[in-house]
Amino acid sequence: MPLSHLADWYVPAELQALYTESGLTYAQIGAKLGVSVRTVGNYLTGETRPKLAMAAKFAEVCGATEKRAGFLIHVISQMDHGRIVSDLDERNIFIIERAEASYGDFWKWEPWYIPGPLQIELYHMEALAGQDEKPMEQWQRKLRRQIMILRRNPRPAMRFLIGLNALQPLVQWEWGQDQFTKLLEFNRLPNCEIRILEGLHRGVEHSFDIYQPAEMTKAGPAFVYVEALDQSRHIEEAIKIDMYHDRVNKMWSFGTRFGGCLNDWVH
Q1: Record's superkingdom (predicted)?
Q2: Which CATH number does the domain housing residue 65 bear?
Q3: Residue 139 is inside which H or E element, if any?
């Protein structure tokens, strides 16, 4: 099975992000790792791939959380298997975070929940209570993703397709209107559109994202991110990406443009 091109893109992209966030220089990182400035540069450009132990140390030096560093190591360990599959213990969306920061076009289909970057803190902490062992850490990541998307210039083309079932519970929460207002704010952004899908449609069983480079130079290859009950995976085969793209386009055509007030969606 060929090398995963997505993993090949993600590793240097994540190392570059860690370097930028750390505020350290190449020389400072190199001194802590015991390597030359040139080697550090090669890691960040993808010219060379750090071994597992070196990547772990790089992440530690740059201040990465244990979970973030662990996922980086997880991806590197899978790079020769041709795809990235994560089970329940290793599931993570750090690749999605990098894609949201780099790709020019993405679709998100979410049947049951408000998509992560569109959530407010109370939705995460109360509506999703009990789903994360460290809810505040997870919320900080979602907030970071949201801020990053809002700061992007030029802004990517973003399409969010949300199941009606995700909206209806908002009426029972005191902060439900605040969450609805956050969706309205995103829907008004340039290059962003939200639609709501009601009823049964083929392909709605699980959430999935589709990412396309759209001529963004820092983006990696096109891919689909899928979450199931027992694992998450990233699909790179063109024929499968086209299948998901065709399906979301059909679902999108049945979706209703988002807007109005919360009570309009409750029936």
Answers
A1: Bacteria
A2: 1.10.260.40
A3: helix 135-151
